[in-house]
């Protein structure tokens, strides 16, 4: 059995957290490939090392004195190393970093040092060899990630290694210049390593006990999702639920490798298992609920629109011309409604309305703003009758007006549009009916 274990920033924020990670790794012989993030926050008011590095590099770029900012970063690592009784030549490492900062190595290089140095410490702490991500994670000259080349390089390098520490978040372009993924990108590195070594499981250790059924800022103490499919996760992530970087799913998905989200502070909790498919029945009809505020809906009315060929295309072309992507498009016989993100739309609002008038000569255009979309997601909905009915009666009982309903043809999700001010109450009503009451 081979496992890739990725530890997030809060799991490696200080020596105490590092020790927990070490205990977890040593508890199972299969946990052999370790992907660390940079040290995260030790408490709410703390600053992540990645942010300290960005700030420090900004000073360097502006020609200001960055010695003290770099000194603060060095102190964080020295403290971790001291707490773990690990010796590392920080003088040499930081001399190099300082030199590269002065020479304009780039902000990606700067940020990557967070993971790089944590990787060095982890490698010394565990006695596992260190593999620099710059040698095995590839981007092209323009900065696009090269997945197949990376897979090949990782395979070649890791094939003969029983264990390794590979820092997360970064790789390099062909000229050796360091490039990072977007924020939170260590999750992607873990997934890439899991794919390359054909891991049995990709364990992603963080500070929550898994993916929650609903947002804990809205639902008090929501339950953890035990098993979720990649597709369900995509639906929820798209609606704003986040534990894992969005792009982290694709590499493991290619190989059908399960991802297990685990909590470093509660290592005995089973966490959430993310899989391609499963016979495991979901505990409830719904797997999760997520949503976002800040949408606008533009409804176009025109008698006999349904028989006008190309009507939809002409309307969508207007949005396309202004670089606005649409989220949902419920339609009726003589109406068609386009849901868009309000802030992106607002800038072009009047041009879009005028454009639609010119393109399709509608009878009327009605614009509604401050809407929220809520996705109720669950593979269990396919086998259950009356799911939509339960959702709508719950919302009716809570006196919430439903503006839009859209059930995906996969029967995996139902999207509901409500007014922004009803957003939280709607989520509570749906959670209640499926999880608390379980009719
Ligand atoms: N350290 C990076 C960040 O703060 C990457 C990561 O933690 O995954 O975004």
Short account of what is shown:
The strands form 3 sheets. The chain has a 7-stranded mixed sheet with strand order 3-2-1-6-8-9-7, with helices on both faces.
Structure description:
This protein is of the alpha/beta class and 439 residues long. 40% of the residues lie in helices and 20% in strands. The chain has 15 helices and 15 strands. The two termini are 41 Å apart. The structure holds aspartic acid. Aspartic acid (ASP) binds next to helix 8.
Extended strand count? 15
Can you tell me the residue ranges where pLDDT is under 50 for at least 5 consecutive residues? none
Strands of the biggest beta sheet: in what spatial order?
3-2-1-6-8-9-7
Mean pLDDT: 95
Q: Residue share in helices?
A: 25-40%
Helix and strand element order: EHEHHHHHHEEEHEEHHEEEHEEHHEHEEH
- The fraction of residues in strands falls at 15-25%
Distance between the termini: 41 Å
Ligands bound to this protein structure: aspartic acid
Helices and strands: which structural class?
A: alpha/beta
Q: How many helices does DSSP assign?
A: 15
**CA gyration radius, whole angstroms:** 25 Å
- Biggest β-sheet strands, sense, barrel: 7 strands, mixed
3D shape: globular
């Amino acid at each position: 059995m081979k496992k890739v274990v990725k530890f997030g920033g809060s799991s490696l924020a200080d020596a105490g957290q590092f020790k927990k990670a070490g205990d977890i790794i040593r508890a199972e012989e299969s946990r052999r490939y370790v992907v660390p993030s940079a040290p995260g926050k030790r408490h709410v008011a703390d600053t992540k090392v990645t942010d300290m590095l960005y700030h420090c590099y900004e000073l360097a770029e502006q020609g200001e004195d960055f010695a003290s900012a770099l000194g603060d970063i060095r102190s964080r690592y020295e403290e971790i190393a001291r707490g773990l009784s690990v010796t590392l030549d920080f003088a040499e490492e930081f001399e190099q970093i300082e030199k590269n900062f002065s020479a304009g190595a780039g902000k990606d290089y700067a940020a990557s040092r967070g993971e790089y140095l944590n990787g060095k410490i982890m490698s010394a702490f565990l006695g596992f060899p260190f593999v620099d991500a710059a040698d095995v994670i590839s981007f092209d000259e323009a900065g696009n990630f090269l997945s197949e080349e990376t897979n090949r390089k990782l395979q070649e390098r890791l094939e003969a290694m029983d264990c390794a520490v590979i820092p997360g978040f970064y790789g390099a372009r062909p000229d050796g210049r360091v490039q990072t993924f977007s924020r939170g990108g260590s999750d992607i590195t873990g997934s890439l390593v899991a794919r390359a070594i054909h891991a049995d499981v990709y364990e992603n250790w963080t500070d929550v006990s898994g993916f929650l059924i609903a947002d804990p800022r809205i639902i008090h103490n929501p339950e953890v999702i035990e098993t979720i499919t990649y597709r369900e996760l995509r639906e929820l992530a798209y609606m704003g639920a986040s534990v894992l970087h969005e792009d982290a799913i694709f590499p493991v998905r290619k190989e059908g490798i399960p991802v297990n989200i685990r909590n470093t502070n509660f290592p005995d909790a089973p966490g959430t298992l993310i899989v391609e498919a499963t016979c495991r029945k979901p505990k409830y009809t719904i797997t999760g609920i997520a949503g976002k505020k800040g949408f606008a809906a533009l409804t176009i009315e025109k008698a006999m629109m349904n028989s006008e060929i190309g009507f939809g295309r002409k309307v969508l072309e207007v949005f396309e011309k202004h670089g606005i992507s649409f989220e949902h498009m419920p339609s009726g016989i003589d109406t068609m409604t386009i849901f868009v993100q309000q802030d992106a739309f607002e800038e072009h609002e009047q041009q879009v309305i005028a454009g639609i008038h010119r393109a399709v000569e509608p009878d009327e255009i009605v614009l509604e703003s401050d809407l929220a979309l809520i996705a109720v997601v669950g593979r269990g909905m396919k086998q259950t009758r009356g799911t939509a009915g339960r959702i709508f009666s719950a919302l009716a009982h809570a006196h919430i007006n439903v503006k839009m309903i859209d059930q995906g043809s996969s029967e995996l999700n139902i999207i509901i549009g409500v007014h922004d001010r009803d957003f939280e109450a709607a989520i509570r009503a749906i959670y209640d009916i499926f999880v608390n009451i379980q009719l």
